Fold these 2 entries.
Entry 1:
Amino acid sequence: MAEVKLSHIKKSYGDVEIVKDFDLDIRDKEFMVFVGPSGCGKSTTLRMIAGLEDITGGDLLIGGRRVNNVSPKDRDIAMVFQNYALYPHMTVYENMAFSLKLRHLAKGEIQKKVGEAARVLQLESLLGRKPKELSGGQRQRVAMGRALVRNPSVFLLDEPLSNLDAKLRVSMRTEIARLHQRLQTTMIYVTHDQTEAMTLGDRIVVMNDGIIQQCGTPMELYQHPVNQFVAGFIGNPPMNFFSVELMENEGRLFASSESILIEVPQQQADILRAAGEKEIVFGIRPEAIHDAAMLLSENIDIAARGTVEVVELLGAETLLHVRCGRELIVASMPSGKSYHPGDTIELVFTTDRMHAFRKADGRSLLYGKLGGAA
Amino acid sequence: MQFKTSTKKHLAVHAALILGAVTMLVPFLWMVITSLKTLAESTMVPPTLWPETLQWSNYADVWNSLPFAAFYANTFGMILFRVIGSVFFSATAAYAFARIEFPGRNVLFGLVLVTMMIPGQLFLIPQYEIVARLGAVDSLFALVLPGIVSAFGTFLLRQFFLGIPKELEEAAVLDGCSRWQIFWHVMLPLTRSGLIALSIFTALFAWKDLMWPLIVNTSLDKMPLASGLASLQGQYSTNFPQLMAGSMIAIWPMLILFVLFQKQFIQGVAGTGSKN
């Protein structure tokens, strides 16, 4: 039993409120990811769960027990830090065994537990080394091992991959996912990298300004963002946003700006009409934008015409930055056709996958109103 | 052209360093030479550069005329207890000033720093008063007591503690360490070079402490080396060769210590200025 329940958690430093009314239930064995920009309060929340920060208000329950005033060592948690926080004067073995020694475990048992963790993390040959003799990836594994030997109910990971290079980050990401599957322990993972969040999390909490913006599975967040912030934060490359006016014409609803004209599909149009907004922020993901010249159908509506400014070849896909008047649209095209800066292009939008946000506060006008939304 | 400028710069630096080294070495060599002269030769004008005959007997004479065994014992005792005391108290105080939030922390640390800025002579009378009221005048305890706390040591070690990442402490908290265990198992081992530097400084200051032992102790057999040697200096006349021979006898433990811990000594000096 290791659910973590954060009930109206608050954190303030003087008059400055860092975390505001954080309410979340993390299920047993769940991999929960807190994601958000720097300073959004995600690490502070994690540190409150760890007991490294006092909780200003609300209740924190781990395994059904209120732990607001319980010392970190008695919360049955282990934490992996961003800079690993390995004790430099101790060997890998001593680092991993340290917490067990403090708990006065028998030497044989310590050896067994450290040996087991070292085997899982492929650290057996490194046990006699000091941290300074290890590479970044090895240090990261030792930090994981140190947490692992304690067999905690909850793992807390604070941006554990931030200090690694891009390639190693990908392989360690896989290792962490594998470890979670193997251990079946509740994990709470903090990152500012939405790719890590999407690939690792059973559920993701997107935070901004100390507030939970949205909590859901990666696909829920991707397909049904609750507001413009989540829509822009989740997904790489990010969603395109345009300020558009809504216009009725012969019973059909159009969204238009200086350089874009889109017919809103019937289901979305009904919702937008009911919302009564005249101006909205229209959102569309790069992969929902197509090159008209590549489509076989003749009955297509051109949403925008523009000039290719930048071409980014990514192998499986090509990212086009297309200038359409004042708008810069990023479109993801399948590789095959070659594009060059200066090419003119006609763009077609898969409008079924459109998003619409209220201009005043960025809230989604379609969230929860279309089939499949959370 | 650039090579020439660089060579000139190197030559200038080396010349300055050689001049500094010679300036430091000459008094030492003069002490060695004087310790091997006769009394007459040592006061001769103009002075002789090298003794006519080497007077090794100066060493035997000074050894027999003063209780060197007691001097050594007192000096080593004083050094040992002062080092233990100053390392313990400085480390605990420095850790508190560096890592524990408590009301008035900065003001108190400021007061510690202020004591470093006041001339040490000003403390002599109050310190003597304290020792006298404890009934400890003319004892090893009197030699040790004022040296067991060190504002300099607190300042030095605080710099070392500040340089240790906070996450290490937090990791130790999660591992189950109490405050004392964090200090003992994590923080103290990581300030090893600072502790060695402080030990060397404390030992050095204790070894060359002249005034305090002369004030607080009166019996010759309760004196450490530096103060004991001062008894060779008369009001009207001084036997310089014997004084220098005595100094030579007194100096070798410190020389060995310096040679052994040269790296830590320099690191300690650098650490006081360069760290946060």
Entry 2:
Amino acid sequence: MSTISRRKFVTGGLAAAAGVSSLAVASRLSKKYGLVPPDSGGIYGPGETLTYAAQQLLARHSVAREFPRSMISKVPFANAIAPLSDEFKRLEAGGFAGWQLSIQGMVARPASLSLTDLKSFPVRSQITEVVCEEGWSYVAEWIGTPLSEILKACGLLRHARYIVYFSIDPDWWESIDMNDAQHPQTLVAWAMNGGDLPVAFGGPLRLRVPRQLGYKSVKFVTRVMATDSLKGFVSSVEPKSPNFGYAWYAGI
Amino acid sequence: MRVTHWITVISFLALLLTGIEIVISHPRFYWGEVGHSQTATLFKIPIPSSRATVPSGYGYVLPDQNGWSRYLHFEAAWALVLTGLVYVIAGLWSRHFRKNVFPAPEDMTWSAFLSVISKHLRLAPANEADARSYNVLQRVTYLIVVFVLFPLVILSGLAMSPAFNAAVPWVVTSLGGRQSARTIHFFVSISVVLFFLVHIAMVVLTGFANRMREMIIGSAAIFKERL
């Protein structure tokens, strides 16, 4: 054995040993610090975990870009939605006066809030980009109540780890971690570009998560649930509709 | 080092396949920050789309394959980036770049380039020196692929991520906006594909079996006989 190949052998062996042991340590630490996304199993799990862990470690407190008013898209794009139910049409006919957002799960004071109730909270307005996983995007002004304010008012329990939010469309729900739920830019939006939020863009209520792709911004939100586990909601991570088989973390 | 080559090949093919699949969901390209089906395009690819909202001109919609395509695209991107880091660090450490890839100063002349090109055009058989080391054209190409195209395709890809743009906004800004980054990602990917095709053509022309043998087990038959 020549010296070079011996050196190669030793460094290779050391690198492999370091690799295996650091993987074991990394897996323990990442579970402890919430770096593992709920869809970490399966063949795509390692990629998802790397993406989610990198975001959690390096960019947890980052803020989505906000644009000047001059960059608001003259024509925003409303993606196709499923036909609206009779219940929705009834609420729409009443000017959404009967629309209720219920807050439930791991909160000390569950509540049901009307649009008027929501507007009594501190208001936030921001000009952010809606980015669709298909590739297109537009910039709009979103006005609403920060989700964190609602959670604070309802007494979010300390061991809650995720927020699941549901559309009036029974097949449409999504979930985010507490870091995104408490993020100042995560809004329960009820207005867009200065007017009421149009139905095509999710009105009367849309949950806007600007650091993630558009499919996390569920339209027609009626229910917000705090939970410590998505286990009972495995199908919510990959619901049949609209995002079959899509990644849970949509920051990329 | 040869292991990094083959991991890169597998990742590249996965990225190419899933990249095509993702483009099918919106085969329209724009310049600037924003763009969608109701705005003017920079150009369109005349193919059917997997989304009914895209005015593709075809009367049908392809099935949506973006779920697994996006999962695999990003997993393969991680494999490529991590392997690329190992390759570049090992290449600097072992002086592979300095010894075998950076062109000698006397070769960085137009006449040296022209002599290599004319040799190729005349289909002159490779001599032993050619078989043992890279010529100036190969060296410059490899440098561009490793230190320009790959970093650019990675950065322009990241500049489409809303979370990355929140964390590191100057990358997307310096690329001219999110849709510009997407268009750049598309063209740089095509450049890498062109390199890939020429690279394979060269391997085939210079003796496929021997080249594969070199790249898999590390030694070529012609040299072994002489040892």
